[in-house]
Design brief:
By secondary structure, the protein is α+β, with helices and mostly antiparallel strands. It has two domains: about 100 residues, Winged helix-like DNA-binding domain superfamily/Winged helix DNA-binding domain (Arc Repressor Mutant, subunit A, Orthogonal Bundle); about 60 residues, no CATH class. A hairpin with a 6-residue loop joins strand 4 and strand 5.
């Protein structure tokens, strides 16, 4: 690829935005990021134990999320600096906004959600769409989200509409 053209297009989006999203390059990073967003704060050993990760692996994941600005590494007092047992991690305001913005973009609008029938839940306010979507996605607080199973993978050639009742494109062979 022509590097000049690549740089010209890249310069149109701030590097901070590009780097934030690139830091979420693995499912493990996504999982830790979501855990820190939902749990508010967690210590290194809590994260390591929760995910069954070895210390080096968890350290790499956390460093990547901190470098992307999605997660902050914190201590409660100045005296705690240098004591690894007192360091905790939490999602930054920016990290919470990124997750919220991605949900706003990736999830169907409320008007489409209303086309689906409610399913039973303890609160009676969930909708089942296709696997992997957030149930009751009118919720803006991530702590109230309920997830279904992982969505099926789609490849670039599988471009048929997924909305019930949408017309399928005719293909000629």
């Amino acid at each position: 690829m022509d590097r000049t053209t690549v740089e010209a297009y890249l310069s149109r989006v701030p590097v901070e935005i590009r780097e934030s999203v690139m830091e979420l390059s693995t499912d493990a990073k996504w999982a830790v990021y979501i855990a820190l967003t939902l749990e508010e704060e967690m210590y290194f050993n809590e994260l390591k134990d929760t995910f069954g990760a070895n210390p080096r692996e968890m350290d790499r994941i956390l460093k990547s999320l901190v470098d992307g600005g999605l997660v902050a590494k914190k201590v409660r007092t100045l005296e705690d600096i240098g004591d690894r047992r007192k360091v905790y991690y939490r999602s930054t305001d920016y990290g919470k906004k990124v997750l919220s913005a991605l949900c706003d973009v990736a999830l169907p609008p409320e008007s489409l959600i209303k086309q689906y029938k409610p399913t039973s839940s303890e609160r009676g306010d969930c909708w089942t769409m296709y696997p992997g979507t957030v149930k009751g996605s009118s919720e803006t607080d991530p702590e109230n989200w309920k997830f279904d199973q992982t969505p099926p993978r789609r490849d670039a050639f599988n471009t048929r509409p997924t909305i019930a009742g949408a017309k399928q494109a005719e293909t000629k062979v």
